[in-house]
Amino acid sequence: MSSGSLLDLAKSRQPADRERLLLAIADLCDAPHAGDVMKSGAIQALLSSIFMSLVVEAERDIRRRLSEKLAEADWAPNALVNVLALDDIEIARPIIAGSPVLKDLDLVRLLVEATIEHQIEVARRPNLSQAVVGAILEQAEPAVLTALAGNPTADLSQADMEELVEAARQIAALRTPLSQHPRLTGQLAKRLYLWVGLALRQGLADRFRLDVAILDEALAASINEGHYDIVAVPASEAQPRTARDGEREAMERRLIDKLHAAGQLRPGYLIRALREGRLGLFAAALAVLGRFDQSHVQATIDSDRPELLALACAAVGIDRSVFPDILEMTRKLNDGRPGGGSEGAAKAQVAFAPVTPEVAGAAFRQAARSLSAA
Predict the structure, then answer these.
(1) Is 108 helix (H, G, I), strand (E, B) or coil?
(2) Which residue has the higher pLDDT, 1 or 230?
(3) Which residue of 194, 199, 250, 338 lies most exposed, with the fewest beta carbons within 10 A?
């Protein structure tokens, strides 16, 4: 079809003509030197002016075909590619998987705004950068973490691998892809060995030449400790007993300090701690991440002012869309506190106003001091 015909179709407001225009442009993708043609100023201006309205009005089948045609095109308009990436997952999948137009910021936005299915496709995208990997780890969504673990081309650092292996303690689906991951080290394999089934243990032992006898002893000790919830003591004094609250808090604080010193303590860890039912770990991590007084964090959690918890979360980089889940999990673990009901939850959203984390942190400290003094 000639450029004149394309322009005629572009001027038409008839639905059939507008769909014919989309199909014609899609067919041009298969033409020789299509990229050179599409990068010309006139065509780019045409695409920018008509594509958005055309795609919104087009039938699903046409949007899917367009997505497949544009998946590898480096000349496709950025706005169009991002619209297709947010479309139904069957339409979005080719774009998310391969479009060179999608940049790190676009992929991170998908992780925040799109469905779990879209997020999984982001995690599977070849050659993910450190920035996108970090965003996935911060959100700590099990299905998305599992997709990331199964992506051998993602730019995972050693610290990222350690975080995934640690998550495998609670997320069983992570264990198989991690056991086969090319960046798994012998040291991490020893940790993973303690949490996987018999078949995977054998595979890890063969791959890394692990000393199975020693690891099986460690596995038995771990099971025993988990069963009795005991605190480690010398073998001569060992006996099942429940860890006292002070001892548990000290252990949790040591874990948080260790993660922080290694640069592995991130906002996503807060969500993980709550999902594991470890409210004390959540409070300790929030205090360290925000450089808050831990007594202020605890007083906030026990108060009837969820907006203060929202301020603390905003100060450490938690997104507005994630906070309702944090509040719900905190209340479930803390006898309904912080209180305030649905009205308090709605009020808490105001804490995520467009201010810097530093301002949110300062506001939290001031309010928390007043709360503690009351």
Answers:
(1) helix
(2) 1
(3) 199
